[in-house]
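Batch job 17 of 40 flagged for manual review because the log was empty.
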Amino acid sequence: MAKAGGRPRRWSREQEEDIWARRTRGESLQQIATALLVSVATVRTVVARSGGVAPRPRTRSPRTLQLREREEISRGLAAGQSARAIAQALGRAPSTITREIARHGGPEHYRASQADATAWRRAERPKRCRLAQHPALCMVVAQQLEAGWSLMAVHPINRDDLPFRLITGLVDADRFFDVGINFPAVWLDASFSGVLPRGTPIAQCYAVPREAPTLVCEPMPDVRVRGYDALATQIMRGPGVYRKGYRSKRGGA
């Protein structure tokens, strides 16, 4: 934010680029402030925001939708085309197009220029954390932390190829944080020698309430067994069963 005539205003990208161009040419903060008719403190704030180093120009990833593609989406919607037909014409996945349309007003209100500007703004980094943006969520998290939560570590799911088996355990991570957490395990492969590949998961962690959980262990009734077998058979027939039928819908960011 900057002040002009006592009223706050927000720096545009062009104005900030002008500041850094002048700074690169060797102008002092006072000279820049005089040229832009603002206070030295205002210019200093802009410069200090990136540690005194000119930020790299923002660029778009080639994987993201471009303005011309968004214009094609807008024209396709106006012509009554389906998201799948638009995706095929653009060489994009149908899910990419459906998410793009849903994020920016739906088929009736989608506008290419507005969608492009919004996407560019949302991609800006750094972002304020979610807790800072949602006071109600921040209050809930604070209450849960006061109640006490622990970290439960288990062996990574579907990683029976590892030379060890992690022992499931709980750690009060909000109290025990001065040193690293050791994950006890049983070594299975006595002949193993070397280093695990980079990125290999060694533990799967969950946040759980510190209050002792109530565990119920009982045999599955016949109706549950039949339901289990039917769903397992359905999943094994082809991919996408869980994603299409059971995964929760996720809102666009």
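Reviewer: the log was empty due to a logging misconfiguration, but the result itself is present. The beta strands are 2-4, 7-9, 149-154, 164-166, 169-171, 185-187, 204-209. Unflagging and moving on to job 18.
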